[in-house]
Design brief:
Layout lengths: L18 H8 L4 H29 L12 E5 L7 E3 L3 H4 L1 E6 L2 E6 L10 E3 L4 E3 L6 E2 L5 E3 L8 E6 L5 E9 L1 E2 L4 E2 L8 E2 L1
Antiparallel strand pairs: 1-10, 2-3, 3-4, 4-13, 5-6, 6-7, 7-8, 9-10, 11-12
The protein binds FE2/S2 (inorganic) cluster.
Length: 192
């Protein structure tokens, strides 16, 4: 019996491609597909633009601002302080409360040379700056080292309840070189 020859599925060399194959190969180049891709690109750009603007709009509600801690605090009653230097607000408010016979004032604990926090040396009755060695007496007045002037004092007053209110943002300075002395101004101390 003669062997049956099956037709080959492969196209003959040189023959033109079938219509389905041609349509498949040209589908990505058809005007409709190109238009669709363009539309998709345009919409992507548009949504991206709107998204960025929306984020910028939201950013408006979160300003790049420094939130400083409150500068006003209640220090208690004058009777809470005995004569001398009180350090209870040094860590929290960077202040010393100083009580002398007849007056109470608050020294802002910042060296007037380059801003370090001096140490209170009770045994020597002085403030000593650990950075460059400036020294201040018990009223915060400089007498040694590179500090150019006494440490600043903070605004103090007695509120209606009889307690001491301190505002560290309002300072009183003494600067002998400039001929300035605000240490006896109202608000620089309270009479006790
Ligand atoms: S910062 Fe205090 S002596 Fe320099």
């Amino acid at each position: 019996m003669p062997e049956q020859i099956q037709p080959k599925s492969a196209e003959k060399p040189g023959a033109s491609p079938s219509p389905a194959a041609a349509a498949k190969s040209n589908s990505s180049d058809s005007p409709e597909v190109v238009n669709r891709q363009r539309r998709r690109l345009i919409w992507t750009c548009l949504w991206g633009y709107l998204g960025v603007n929306f984020l910028m709009f939201l950013r408006y509600f979160f300003p790049r601002a420094l939130f400083e801690p409150p500068t006003i605090y209640n220090a208690g009653y004058p009777a809470d302080f005995s004569l001398g230097i009180d350090q209870r607000f040094l860590q929290s408010e960077r202040c010393w409360v100083v009580r002398e016979p007849g007056r109470l004032f608050v020294i802002f604990a910042q060296c007037t040379h380059l801003g370090c926090t001096p140490d209170w040396e009770a045994a020597q009755n002085i403030f000593h700056c650990p950075c460059h060695g400036s020294e201040y007496d018990s009223e915060g007045v400089n007498f040694a080292g590179p500090a150019p002037r006494p440490m600043d004092r903070c605004f103090v007053q007695i509120d209606p309840s009889g307690q001491i209110v301190v505002d560290t943002s309002r300072r009183y300075i003494m600067d002998p070189a400039a001929g300035t002395n605000q240490f006896n101004d109202p608000g620089a101390y309270i009479a006790v």
